[in-house]
Design goal:
Bound molecules: pyridoxal-5'-phosphate
Distance between the termini: 27 Å
CATH superfamily of the largest domain: Type I PLP-dependent aspartate aminotransferase-like (Major domain)
Strand content: 5-15%
Largest sheet: 7 strands, mixed
Strand order of the largest sheet: 4-10-9-8-7-5-6
Shape: globular
CATH architecture of the largest domain: 3-Layer(aba) Sandwich
CATH class of the largest domain: Alpha Beta
């Protein structure tokens, strides 16, 4: 039951500020939410709910930024991980799960002839760039979307030498002409083109690809004999088993996967065409932790559930029901937001072009949601899990109606 105090969060934050830069680094910093309305530390999660360190419960509409597709504390996945943990999992050599997971991905994923495994999405996208450069012997990378925190793709340039950023050029989503121009300008020099197949930038509404966009990108990459990489860290095992590439029928050369693949356990993958993946043998990609079987056992269990149960269909259906309900609230209240085009990733986005004072309205709206025990991000789209059902949809819609009144009042 929500108590609505944040005292323990604040005490921990005071302690954190003394020993951790900013207290809470990165995207989870309090200033990215609505200060004084959100908790700063969480204690745990179960199914579609999380609990903060003060004992307040929240309906979780963010799911740890996406991984918890099956809901928090999924017993079957945790059991598989525990079994590997008890047998030992940080060993001198890889465990059988390495081979099993690569074989499973080859069965399940449209572009996975071979796989390499890492810990984070940033690892997987960075490995994709390394392989594209090794394979082609070229340097230039064309990129679109968020690909993680590493030097080559940092948003902003603090701490990154100009020599690194000079070889990576950004292009706009859904703009094939710009990509064509860049490929002509750097003819014969482009190692790879990396993009999120769905446009999902921070602090923007999600944008689906235009009717021919992904096919145009594929054709341009082929014409210029450059490696096409889809960053499906967010969309993989979510929009469809085979991610956005299955949904839209365009298969890249390499794909970065993470998040939903393992229900919260740290493992990511780069999968792709054998010919390009084999370039890994001519460079060095390795880490003490990459071959750990624990997270791979969790990924195998997650993929087993996704193959056995109608998880993705259910999430899409529940999401569609939610989307219809949200549209009704928006129509009735006149809340100046746009809604996500993907039911699996709901988002009420306070587009600044729709009204003045949007930032204040947004903060009142999301602050009111948090106060009602609903954890949604003000500037990042949400996610739905297998554990979001009828009760959760009703709770969210009621919360949104109340928050809309508060935002407009
Ligand atoms: C599309 C995309 N690529 C890459 C990443 C980086 O993944 P990670 O945070 O696991 O390093 C993210 C993380 O949000 C992402 O959404």
């Amino acid at each position: 039951m929500a108590k609505n105090t944040r005292l323990e969060s604040q005490k921990l934050f005071e302690r954190a500020r003394a020993v951790i830069p900013g207290g809470v680094p990165g995207i989870r910093a309090p200033e990215n939410f609505v200060e004084d309305a959100y908790p700063i530390f969480l204690a745990g999660g179960s199914g579609a709910y999380v609990t903060d360190v003060d004992g307040n419960d929240y309906l979780d509409m963010l799911l740890g930024y996406g991984p918890m597709l099956l809901g928090h504390a999924c017993q079957e996945v945790d059991h598989a991980a525990n079994t590997r943990q008890q047998a030992g999992f940080c060993l001198n050599l890889p465990q059988p799960e390495l081979v099993m997971l690569a074989e499973r991905l080859a069965e399940l994923h449209p572009c996975a002839e071979q796989s390499l495994f890492f810990k984070t999405g940033s690892d997987a996208t960075s490995a994709a760039i390394r392989l594209a450069r090794t394979h082609t012997g070229r340097d230039i990378v064309l990129r679109c979307g968020y690909h993680g925190w590493h030097d080559w793709c940092l948003e902003g340039d603090a701490g990154v030498p100009a020599a690194v950023t000079e070889s990576v050029i950004e292009f706009g989503y859904n703009d094939p002409d710009q990509l064509r121009d860049l490929l002509l300008k750097y003819q014969g020099q482009v190692a790879g083109v990396i993009l999120t197949p769905v446009g999902h930038d921070f602090d923007a509404q999600i944008e689906p690809p235009g009717a021919h966009y992904l096919r145009d990108v594929r054709a341009l990459a082929d014409e210029h004999e450059t490696v096409l990489i889809f960053d499906e860290v967010r969309t993989g095992f979510r929009l469809a088993m085979g991610g956005a590439q299955e949904l839209y029928g365009v298969i890249p050369d390499l794909t970065a996967l993470g998040k939903a693949m393992s229900n919260g356990y740290p493992v990511s993958a780069l999968v792709g065409r054998r010919e390009i993946m084999e370039a890994a043998r001519r460079t060095f990609i390795s880490s003490t932790y990459f071959p750990n079987g624990l997270s791979m056992a969790a990924a195998l269990a997650t993929l087993e559930i996704l193959a056995r149960e109608p998880v993705l269909t259910q999430i899409a259906q529940v999401g569609q029901q939610l989307a219809t309900g949200l549209q009704t609230v928006v129509d009735e209240t006149g809340l100046p937001v746009t809604l996500s085009p993907y039911p699996q990733m709901p988002f009420l986005y306070f587009d600044r072009s729709l009204a003045s004072d949007q930032d204040q309205r947004r903060d009142r709206f999301y602050g009111t949601l948090a106060q009602q025990g609903i954890f949604a991000h003000p500037r990042h789209h949400g996610f739905l899990s297998w554990r979001h059902g009828q009760a959760e949809i009703e709770r969210f819609l009621e919360g949104v109606s109340n928050a809309a009144r508060s935002a407009l009042g």
